[in-house]
DNA sequence: CGCATTTGACCTGCGC
DNA sequence: GCGCAGGTCAAATGCG
């Protein structure tokens, strides 16, 4: 199961709710015209409140489902990681094409200290490099800055024009924690200049700054540390593909089709998606407005 | 003045 | 060995 399918299922639930909430919306107008019928208005208000409570319960259930799903996905991911580490070790033990340069050094055993260091360092590098994910962010094509707001702080350390793509590729390092090994490459897509492709290498060894603020008691809903002129770019959805290298094509295919559900980006996207599907639903907003106004009127009449 | 960004130079791996 | 391309470094520059 991929995220889009269960996000869609959330959408379906939202639409199901909206179907049930159609009646209040239709009677909303009559509330204003036949305002004297207090009894029916109160009945409707009660029904709406009931409906709201039901929606809240449903929301809580969905949140529970989401949490359970995230947990099971995390468990699966750690299993996959263990498997991949095993296959990496096996690859290291067996002679491969990558070993060509090192095998060329075999006749120079006098440099054993340096080659030993390399052989120790290389698997570590490969493990770091194995944790590669890719994010596609839709931005304004006229926006020349290759900045992808993902909740982390990045320091640009280089830019290069590559052969396969006329638009420059920018290189970033995570600057929030000095010891964080994560790097990011950002380049516009060749096919669609509106789409920016961000490739992440490695894993953060710290919480995202936004989450750190949240845990430290900040009441802000979403805080991106890039300054006031840098809200979360929600001009389009960010799709994150975990491109973690894998020997098995089957596992790889499944893994690629499965975005990082436990990543803060996805979680934020889900929250935004759920919030927007609710707020964009005219039936829901109308019902909500009717319920609130109903309560206000009933409070006034008391 | 300090920090982030820019940009040319340099390093490294790979193919021929 | 040489050239190419991608990646990184570090001095220069800009900005708040």
Structure characterization notes:
Helix content is 53%, strand content 12%. It is an alpha+beta fold. Strands 2-3-4-5-1-6 form a 6-stranded antiparallel beta sheet. Strand 3 and strand 4 form a beta hairpin. The longest helix has 56 residues, at 38-93. The protein is extended. The two termini are 52 Å apart. Residues 1-38, 88-130, 216-236 and 244-262 have low confidence and may be disordered. The protein binds a DNA duplex (16 and 16 nucleotides) through residues 100-101, 155-160, 162-163, 169, 171, 175, 185. Residues 247-263 have a biased composition (Basic and acidic residues). InterPro entries: WRKY_dom (IPR003657), WRKY_dom_sf (IPR036576), WRKY_plant (IPR044810).
Strand content: 5-15%
Write down the overall geometry: extended
Q: State the helicity in percent bands.
A: 40-55%
User: In angstroms, what separates the terminal alpha carbons?
Assistant: 52 Å
Radius of gyration: 26 Å
Strand order of the largest sheet: 2-3-4-5-1-6
Give the uncertain stretches in residue-range form: 1-38, 88-130, 216-236, 244-262
Secondary structural class: alpha+beta
SSE topology string = HHHHHEEEEEHEHHH
The biggest beta sheet reads: 6 strands, antiparallel
Total beta strand runs? 6
Number of helices: 9
Question: What is the averaged pLDDT score?
Answer: 57
């Amino acid at each position: 199961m991929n995220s889009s399918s269960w996000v869609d299922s959330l959408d379906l639930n939202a639409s199901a709710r909206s179907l049930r909430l159609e009646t209040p919306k239709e009677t909303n107008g009559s509330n204003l015209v036949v305002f004297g019928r207090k009894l029916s208005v109160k009945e409707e208000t009660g029904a709406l409140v009931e409906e709201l409570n039901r929606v809240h319960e449903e929301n809580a259930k969905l949140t529970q489902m989401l949490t359970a799903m995230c947990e099971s996905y995390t468990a699966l991911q750690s299993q996959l990681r263990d498997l991949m580490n095993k296959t990496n070790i096996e690859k290291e033990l067996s002679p491969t094409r990558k070993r060509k340069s090192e095998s060329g050094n075999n006749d120079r055993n006098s440099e054993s200290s340096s080659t030993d260091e390399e052989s120790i360092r290389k698997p570590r590098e490969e493990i770091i490099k194995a944790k590669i994910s890719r994010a596609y962010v839709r931005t304004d094509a006229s926006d020349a800055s290759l900045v992808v707001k993902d909740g982390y702080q990045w320091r640009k350390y280089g830019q290069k024009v590559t052969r396969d793509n006329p638009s420059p590729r920018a290189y970033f390092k995570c600057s929030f924690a000095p010891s964080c090994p994560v790097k990011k490459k950002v380049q516009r897509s060749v096919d669609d200049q509106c789409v920016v492709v961000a490739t992440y290498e490695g894993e953060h060894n710290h919480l995202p700054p936004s989450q750190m603020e949240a845990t430290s008691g900040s009441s802000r809903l979403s805080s991106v540390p890039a300054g006031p002129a840098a809200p979360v770019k929600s001009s389009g959805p960010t799709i994150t593909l975990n491109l973690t290298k894998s020997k098995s094509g089957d596992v790889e295919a499944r893994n690629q089709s499965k975005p990082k559900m436990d990543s803060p980006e996805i979680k934020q996207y889900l929250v935004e998606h759920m919030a927007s599907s609710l707020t964009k639903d005219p039936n829901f907003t109308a019902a909500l407005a009717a319920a609130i106004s109903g309560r206000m009127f009933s409070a006034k009449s008391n």
